[in-house]
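Margin note: ligand = magnesium ion.
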Amino acid sequence: MEIVLRGIGVSPGIAIGPALPFGVRTLDIPRYLVENKEAEWARFEQAVTTVRGELTRLHEQTMQELGQYHADIFAAHLLLLDDITIHEEIKSRLDSEGLNVEFLLDELVGRYSNLLESVEDPRFRERARDLVDVSQRVLERLLNAEAQTLERLETPSVVVAHDLSPSETAKIDLVNALGIATDMSGPTSHTAILARAFEIPAVVGLKYVGAHVMPGDMVVLDGTHGQVIIRPEEKTLERFRAEKKREEARRQALLLADENLVSTTLDGHAVPTLANIELPVEIAHSLKTKAMGVGLYRTEYLFLNRGSLPTEEEQFHAYAEVAEAFNPSSVTLRTLDIGGDKFVAHVRSLPETNPQLGWRAIRFCLERPDIFKAQLRAMLRASTFGNVQIMFPLISGVDELRQAKAIFRDVCLDLDRRSIPFDRNVKVGSMIEVPSAVAMADMLAKESDFFSLGTNDLIQYSLAVDRGNERIAHMYEPAHPAILRMIRQTVLAAKAAKIPCAVCGEMAGDPLFTELLAGLGVDSLSMSTVAIPAVRAQIATCRMSVARRFAKRVLAMGSASDVRALLLERFRGRNEQA
Ligand code: PEP
Ligand code: MG
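Resulting structure:
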């Protein structure tokens, strides 16, 4: 019998293929009696030695690149690895029962971690996770198992996972990954954003897909409507094969019809549509979709999935490539936004209880001026290759912006001293994505060259709804009047200071909000490339004079569900007429 699961469709399209469960415990732990106990113990010690080498290297590297605080996690792992009680218990059971060491280790860690997990204090739970992490490394060595990766899939498959981190998604095999289905995650999580960027159909927040699917099971994934069908019946398969063809034809038609559109309303107001990009592979597609520049380059993706930080030179080439490709259109390079749900390898186990409220984005950069300065130098050097703007993420107030700009000025002086050319007119802007930044928008506007509203985080922080949590995804509501008021307040502050205000959160790519955002006075919209044709089609069907009146009407409303209903009604009306 087929099983139909509903989740949140975050990247449109239909995928049909065999399931590839990812990240489920794949290590098969054997249990057998050993003949030579001494040799078995030596095998265990050898595995521990190898892992000790790995962890020591990670510890040193992290200490060098990110400092003591982050390196401590590996110091803790090293202590656990050499925990004498664990070693003694394995040795004593090996001597008395003669069982293989991977079985003994797995059983012992299972027992200990259950015990630790049952204690209320979160520090014990963290310790349980650390213990499992370390023992997993040792087990992998003992079993000669490679860690599972999505980098190269053997056959075209639908990737099914309990959860996928942005770094795992960033290196996914773009040819063979047909679709992505996860139990966890929300619509504006970075995993969802990447799936859209790569145009891989995806459904998240499925809750139980990992539990229902076996390797190789046939799966139909509908990213447009947010459903996954496991072991579909023949007639279901046929229906979706036909729908897949129709949907591809529709998308193609939209792209072709869009060829001559210039993002202008019926009464001649330009609302430029720009691309958000994460990785250089997206440049070509953004150009094909005729993106009018890059409104957000999430540069942190250059830092993920690697053993060390990218050099200034590497960064310079990456930024210059984008600047040159889009010249003379503008390219907005956002400085490093790691933390939250994006960790570079060495910070992966960052012991923060609440990383979204933790050490991320500009906070990280201000404490690591060495990393920040290298990035700013690379960005400024790239500015001679096109029309570059620089933007700081997660600005929460004036002091932070001033500190960031002071470092920026230092870097300019340094380049000058060394006679390295850069564009002296590079604009420096603030992302408005923290509620305190909205409250201070008038002050921030006086010291910023532009604003870009990061609605993904603004919604998360204003409504207190974790953007990556599927359980409360229904509460993550861009149509909430509080959000619309904050957008308007930011726009007004920008207008008073005569600076432009863009939106680069996912809301900018949702055609339901296009007319409203234009009416609220937003100057440009930056979005996943895949969304550009549909948003541009909306701009082409609205009048700015009407949009402004409509926005006024919406701003007077108090209920999020009423706003959403009105937006839907209006959207249908506009598109049925067209
Ligand atoms: C946002 O928060 O809206 C944004 C564009 O930044 P990110 O999604 O990378 O946090
Ligand atoms: Mg953000």
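The chain has a mean pLDDT of 91.
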